[in-house]
Each structure stands twice: as structure tokens, then as C-alpha cells.
Amino acid sequence: MVAVVALKVPSALTSLLIVKPIGPGVAVSQSRKNCQLNLDLKYPGGFQYSILNTVYRGYAGLDAGVTGVQSTTFYFSGQTAQTTTSTTFKGPVSGDYATQDSVDLTSTIWSPCGSTAALNMNSQVRLTSPNNNAKGLLTDDSIDGKITFVVGVQWQKC
Fold this sequence. Notes:
The protein is 0% helix and 56% strand.
């Protein structure tokens, strides 16, 4: 069984996933931002779930030669296994985006059976360019300025 969960992020976190422009006079530290979320999802006993895919919306404005990467790493508290979804943008590009990333079937991780564990999401956006004069902006939000992570999950009986 597959379900889609829309996770709304508090507006106070919105600025954490917006990379300020890279370019002349901008500190290198501004080219990468990340946000760690810990989610305690409630679900019926006797089942476990895994991340199937993610949907992201945002804005990419990148000069030629600028590369932007939007990614999220998922893992369950107390487990070492992780899975990551990622999208790469290559400049020149300018405009809003909506992208769906699927988890590779060989990278599927499952919540524990018989107990619950927080789902951890470490989402990041970063920009790189070999040209110090190139400019770029990458956001992981929606057109209306609100961040919503849409995550597809799959379920199975323990």
C-alpha cells in the first residue's frame, strides 16, 4: 500500500532552506543551508513504513556554470541505515520548479517493527560554481512561500 503524506513546516523555518545568492562579495558559507527535522509519526501497530518518494517545489535562478543541488536524507532514530533523494540543477536556468525524486529500491529503509522511531529528515540546498563572478539562487519552498514536503510512503505488515 502506498500513501502520500504532506508535511507542513512551520513558517519560522522557511528561511533555513533558502540559499542566498552566490557571487562576488558573498561568503562561501551562504552557498549551503540545511534543516534537520525530527518527525514522530503515529501509525497502527503491526505495520512499518518506508519513504518511497519526495516532491519538492521552489525556485532556481542560476547563471551558466552554476550547479544547484536540493537533497534530503532520511533515517529512523536509532538506526544507521539512510536513504537520500536528490535533484541537480545546472545553469543557466531561471524559474519555479516542481520535482519528484524516487528512492532507489535497493536503498529502501523501513521503520522498526513493534515500536516507533522518529523519522529524521535532513534537507539541504547548495550552490557551487568554478566562476567566482557567477550568481545563483536556489530555494526549497513553494510558490506561495510556504514549505511543504510531500513524501510518498509505502506500508507493509510486520
